[in-house]
Design a protein that fits this description.
The structure holds 2 protein chains of 2 kinds. By secondary structure, chain A is of the alpha/beta class. Chain A contains 13 helices and 12 strands. An 8-stranded mixed β-sheet of chain A has the order 6-7-8-3-9-10-12-11, with helices on both faces. The two termini of chain A are 40 Å apart. By secondary structure, chain B is of the alpha/beta class. Chain B contains 12 helices and 12 strands. Chain B has an 8-stranded mixed β-sheet, with helices on both faces. In chain B, helix 5 packs parallel to helix 7 and helix 6 crosses helix 7. Chain B is globular, with a radius of gyration of 21 Å. The chains are: A alpha/beta, B alpha/beta. The interface between A and B is large, with 45 and 41 residues.
């Protein structure tokens, strides 16, 4: 399969007075064409900043991509100027966010918000773009699309707004769709509708999806590959099935054991002790060590590297290091 | 002695099946006002006839999608909202129309609430000491010195270091703030705690800590919980019995084992099938029932069974007649024409 996006050693730092906050600290990702990659992590893990870095939408001047490459279809996005980047956004990469109400403009009709994208990026005429907008709305499952284009966002429910967002994002037929917690604000039955829709569209148009979420259930429904982030770094990456069969990193294991499931009977949840570390105050050595039940001396002294485990898997943990195994 | 009150409560074991709270056809309508004269033009039927009996020491989970009335039910029980109709009986006493004064003297001490958003429910300008002490002052309990002791004791109980007593809420993470909220709720030694989405705003690894804490406290103090959540997995984990709500009505109520193993109501079936589950490669793919459409507005609920507009099994009778909420199996209640 052809690689669509490759992120190499991405570092996005924030500068606050004299302190440097390494929100994303050396992330590597690879997404193939038509593939869905999920980034899983808790708040502060750097998953959203990773996606904003790919879009080059990191809040500036506080934040900056200090190192690394973001290669989309052979083009390094880090080197592009803002004007060039504008052409990439919307056309090649588009994004949907968690809260659909705050990302839709409340004073523009649904139709205006879709046609705006088409007229700007695809240089369509008003009539053409209106036709296309109706088409897009039908595609995301609205039955009365022709009337809907004259409605304002406040008249729609959360699920409908998210579908409008997806229609906008897909209207220029992007190669990559970044979805940042797209279903977190929605009810479960609506979440199921949206996930189905995203799967369908990705099939139909061969769009790759970068899904950012904290919900492992959602990941197992839609993703092909998964990247687990903690403290601004990738701690584990794996094809989805393998990860659920046999999680490697103690953090991934902890994450799975701390979630009650709807099927199984767990007597007591195994919580991960302590709190997510703040990026300004990262522990030395392995960033998960202070909360890890399997940590040993080396974990506190030295930072582990991401180690390839074969079969498309990698893990950042000394337990899988040859020397660590002996210790 | 401060702790005597606590010790008394430990004796009441779970087997004691005394009914602590009973709801009889409780309704809460919010009027919709319109026009210059603000005339009543309709009602939002947030809670529309809920009947429920809760035993001492049990945890009852209320689940449903947003707008189903689960939070309104919780708030009506504690009389933050005045019920429109029906009866609320707490420990054998009818509290439906009890005066504010009397409420404060009796019921408010015994029923406490834990809220969803630990950022919004703690006053940012008060230290932990004053936040946790406030209920003790309001109810005029203990001397000043005893209160200080009690606050420290409560902080230790919920797993907060007592040396944090002078700190302010912004210095704590989400999980710790939720612990503060729980400590405040425990201050008056309540018997019933209504927890409205207590873990929804927390990170997954922190969720487990708070759930475990709530379970421990229940065992220690013999608490009864009403656990309101949209998360079916969390509710399954913590509850003894689970009630499923839709548009202000209880659709199904059963022991959690029965409800999750064999859901009877088509809505419960759809709801359970919609929950994405982390699964291993060999696991059987569950069939998912995707519900069409959106939740109807509670100001204009559908006729007959409120679920018939989205129900895959709806027939003519569902459109006309409201199904009765009745026991179809031992302890398994359902409101659906399929089981009549």
């Amino acid at each position: 399969m052809a690689t669509l996006l490759e992120v190499k050693n991405l570092k996005t730092y924030f500068y606050k007075k004299k302190t440097v906050i390494p929100a994303v600290d050396g992330v590597d990702l690879k997404i193939n064409k038509g593939e869905t990659l999920a980034i899983v992590g808790e708040s502060g893990s750097g998953k959203s900043i990773t996606s904003l870095s790919i879009m080059k939408l990191v809040p500036s001047p506080a934040g900056k991509i200090v190192e690394g490459e973001i290669i989309l279809d052979g083009k390094n996005l880090v080197d592009l100027s803002e004007a060039e980047m504008c052409k990439v956004r919307g056309n090649d990469i588009s994004m949907i966010f968690q809260e659909p109400m705050t990302s839709l403009n409340p004073v523009l009709t649904v139709g205006e918000q879709i046609t705006e994208v088409l007229m700007y990026h695809q240089k369509m005429s008003k009539a053409e773009s209106t036709k296309k907008a109706i088409e897009m709305l039908e595609m995301v499952g609205f039955s009365r699309a022709a009337e809907l284009i004259n409605d304002y966002p406040h008249r729609l429910s959360g699920g409908m707004r998210q579908r409008v967002m997806i229609a906008i994002a897909m209207s220029c037929n992007p190669k990559l769709l970044i979805a940042d917690e797209p279903t977190t604000a929605l009810d479960v039955t609506i979440q199921a509708q949206i996930l189905d829709l995203m799967k369908d569209l990705s099939h139909k148009f061969d769009t790759s999806i970068l899904l950012i979420t904290h919900d492992l259930g959602v990941v197992s429904e839609v993703a092909d590959k998964i990247v687990v982030m903690y403290g601004g770094q990738v701690v584990e990456q794996s094809p989805v099935d393998d990860l659920f069969d046999e999680p490697l990193h103690p953090y991934t294991v902890g994450l799975m054991n701390s979630i009650p499931t709807i099927e199984g009977e767990i007597e007591r949840l195994q919580s991960i002790e302590g709190n997510v570390p703040s990026p300004e105050n990262m522990p030395k050595g392995c960033r998960f060590a202070p909360r890890c039940s399997k940590a040993f001396d080396r974990c506190f002294a030295e930072a582990p590297q991401l180690k390839q485990m074969g079969n498309d898997r990698a893990v950042r943990c000394f337990l899988y290091d040859d020397e660590g195994a002996k210790a | 002695m401060i702790s005597t009150n606590v010790e008394n409560k430990v004796d009441t074991s779970k087997e004691n099946s005394e009914i602590i709270l009973e709801l009889q056809d409780v309704k809460k309508y919010f009027p919709i006002k319109a026009g210059l004269l603000q005339r009543n033009v309709g009602n939002v039927k947030a809670v529309d006839g809920i009947s429920l009996q809760i035993k001492k020491g049990e945890t009852i989970g209320l689940v449903g999608e947003s707008g189903c009335g689960k939070s309104t039910t919780g708030r009506t029980i504690i009389r933050l909202y005045e019920p429109t109709d029906g009866k609320i009986i707490f420990k054998g006493k009818d509290i439906t129309h009890m005066s504010e004064n009397e409420l404060r003297k009796t019921v408010r001490r015994d029923i406490q609430m834990v809220f969803q958003d630990p950022f919004a429910t703690l006053n940012p300008r008060k230290s932990l000491r004053s936040i946790i002490k406030e209920p003790l002052i309001t109810h005029n309990l203990y001397t000043a010195k005893e209160r200080e002791e009690k606050v420290k004791e409560l902080m230790e109980t919920v797993g907060l270091n007592a040396s944090f007593i002078n700190r302010y809420p912004h210095e704590f993470s989400g999980g710790q703030r939720q612990r503060i909220g729980i400590a405040r709720a425990l201050a008056l030694n309540p018997e019933l705690i209504i927890a409205d989405e207590p873990v929804s705003a927390l990170d997954v690894s922190i969720q487990a800590q708070v759930i475990n804490l709530m379970e421990d406290l229940q065992e220690e103090f013999g608490l009864t919980y009403i656990f309101i959540s949209h998360d079916l997995s969390v509710v399954r984990h913590i509850s003894d019995r689970v009630g499923v709500m839709y548009l202000g009505k209880m659709m199904e109520l059963a022991n959690k084992e029965d409800l999750y193993a064999e859901p009877l109501h088509p809505y419960t079936q759809a709801l359970l099938s919609a929950v994405p589950v982390p699964k291993k490669s060999g696991a059987i793919k569950r069939e998912r029932i995707v519900l069409k459409g959106e939740l109807p507005s509670p100001s204009n609920p559908p006729s007959g069974c409120v679920f018939h507009t989205r129900c895959p099994a709806a027939t003519d009778i569902c459109r006309q007649l409201v199904p009765e909420f009745k026991e179809v199996k031992q302890g398994h209640f359902v409101a659906c024409h399929l089981y009549e």
